[in-house]
Amino acid sequence: xxxxxxEGERGPLQSxxxxxxxxxSRPVQFDGELCHFGASVGSDIGMAxxxxxxxxPARLLANADIALxxxxxxxxxxxxxxxxxxxxxxxxxxxxxxxxxxxxEDGQFVAVYQPQVDAVTGELxxxxxxxxxxxxxxxxxxxxxxxxxxxxxxxxxxxDQLILSQALTDLARWxxxxxxxxxxxxxxxxxxxxxxxxxxxxxxxxxxxxRLSFEILETVFFDRMxxxxxxxxxxxxxxxxxxxxxxxxxxxxxLSSLLDLAPNRLKIARPFVTEIDQSDRHKQLVRSMIAxxxxxxxxxxxxxxxxxxxxxxxxxxxCVAMQGFYFGKPMTADAFTEDLRRRRDRRxxxxx
Length: 352
Ligand code: C2E
Ligand code: CA
Ligand code: CA
Prior knowledge:
Blueprint: H1 7-25, E1 28-30, E2 33-41, E3 45-51, H2 57-73, E4 79-81, H3 84-105, E5 109-118, E6 124-135, E7 139-141, H4 147-153, H5 156-176, E8 184-187, H6 196-204, E9 212-217, H7 218-224, H8 227-239, E10 242-248, H9 255-261, E11 265-268, H10 270-274, H11 280-296, E12 299-302, H12 308-317, E13 321-323, H13 333-351
Parallel strand pairs: 3-4, 6-8, 8-9, 9-10, 10-11, 11-12, 12-13
Antiparallel strand pairs: 1-2, 2-3, 5-6, 5-13, 6-7
This protein binds ligand C2E and calcium ion (2 copies).
């Protein structure tokens, strides 16, 4: 796998890999014992070894595969040995995977909402919908604990779809209640860009245009602005949905690719905001990110704002749209409904 290159290169690479596998499967005399190896070769190598009279070749290969998987996870072109810890990690990730599949079927994933505000006027600009797993035993589980596994299982697009549907249902409900949620942002995983269901959703266009954004990580444009991504972006922009570059500053998207992409908003990643008052360099970086947004003629919002001091520095630099614990943590749909009500009542009192 991942041997890459054109057809012409496949042959020699394949025979090298075959040679390595063949070489590694020859038993080796070591420390007075005959050791057997199993290897699985791609651009990464996973290795397992066993010794003694009773060798189970299938087990050996499965172990090599676990090591290969770990080698792949830790960066390209690595070789790794199978260990007992790796087996345990693979086992718990398998169990978690099954739990996630079941949770998807049982509707245990819910959207929570984090407010986005204008830090100068205090006005609500919208909210970002974030996935939570309403686990029967563990309570609300954060995406850090299930998203990597969901991605590996290939069910991230399905999860994204669930969160999107909930977000749209909630938005319609708030509208019907006369509550003003101006805008919602929903995350889109890299795989979802190639998902037919996603394309169908965009083609149908059954959503409030310009009040819905999709957030795509900057790394996606850097890593794989391939034809599929390009096509998804095109139909996204035709559909009237807005496009946001998530975690801007972490993905090295070039200025020309940003120009080409024509997003509607850049989201300055949390690490830059966290450091903004600690380091002059970070402050300068944030200043340049805001300048990039201005040069592109697009909106900018800062993520992960935790203190008034950070908010004030951002305002001074020209960024007034913010999201972060200082303004509000992600909350359940019910809690956000209450928040919207309070805001409406406050507006009512102010204009009375
Ligand atoms: P993100 O898109 O960058 O979302 C912002 C994350 O920062 C959220 O974490 C939010 O709870 C957290 N956060 C917001 N303000 C603050 C703050 O002031 N301080 C700190 N320390 N953290 C703050 P969360 O909800 O755990 O989500 C983590 C990541 O998981 C998200 O990062 C996003 O990349 C991904 N994610 C969440 N929901 C979905 C989803 O439905 N689909 C996809 N594809 N990814 C999702
Ligand atoms: Ca996001
Ligand atoms: Ca982000």
